[in-house]
Specification:
This protein has 122 residues and is of the alpha/beta class. Helices cover 19% and strands 36% of the residues. The chain has two helices and eight strands. The strands form two sheets. A four-stranded mixed sheet has the order 1-4-3-2, covered by helices on one side. The radius of gyration is 15 Å and the shape is globular.
């Protein structure tokens, strides 16, 4: 017996707002839950491994994430995708080039870390 990924879950002070941000990142629809305290963003292809759940909690994020999402722009243009994500409400923390990869660590509107990257330019 093994396990399979069900959902990646985010706590948020505003679940609907954060779901809207990630829906725009991936161009996936938001599915609102039975209560305003939850929303899900799901891959419209039906791949059940690609679902993000957002749950409303009263407290704000306190510390650095121990787990984060790593993204790659579909067209390979990291700079253009970073600009688009900043327009959606993300903020850039820093950029690094290491192990043949160039990436930027960013915050989503709730302060959750994520990275966007691609091959380092030669």
């Amino acid at each position: 017996m093994t396990s399979q990924l069900g959902l990646i879950t985010f706590d948020s002070v505003d679940a609907a707002r954060l779901a809207g941000f990630w829906a725009a990142v991936f161009d996936w629809p938001v599915q609102h839950g039975a209560s305003p305290a939850m929303a899900m963003v799901a891959d419209p292809s039906g791949d059940t491994a690609h679902r993000l759940l957002f749950l409303a909690v009263p407290e704000a994020k306190q510390a650095k994430n121990r787990c984060h999402l790593d993204l790659r722009p579909t067209d390979g243009d990291v700079d253009r995708e970073v600009a688009r994500l900043e327009e959606l409400g993300a903020t850039t923390l820093y950029e690094k080039v290491e192990y043949g990869t160039r990436w930027r660590t960013m915050h989503d509107p709730d302060g959750n870390e994520f990275c966007i990257g691609g091959p380092a330019e030669e």
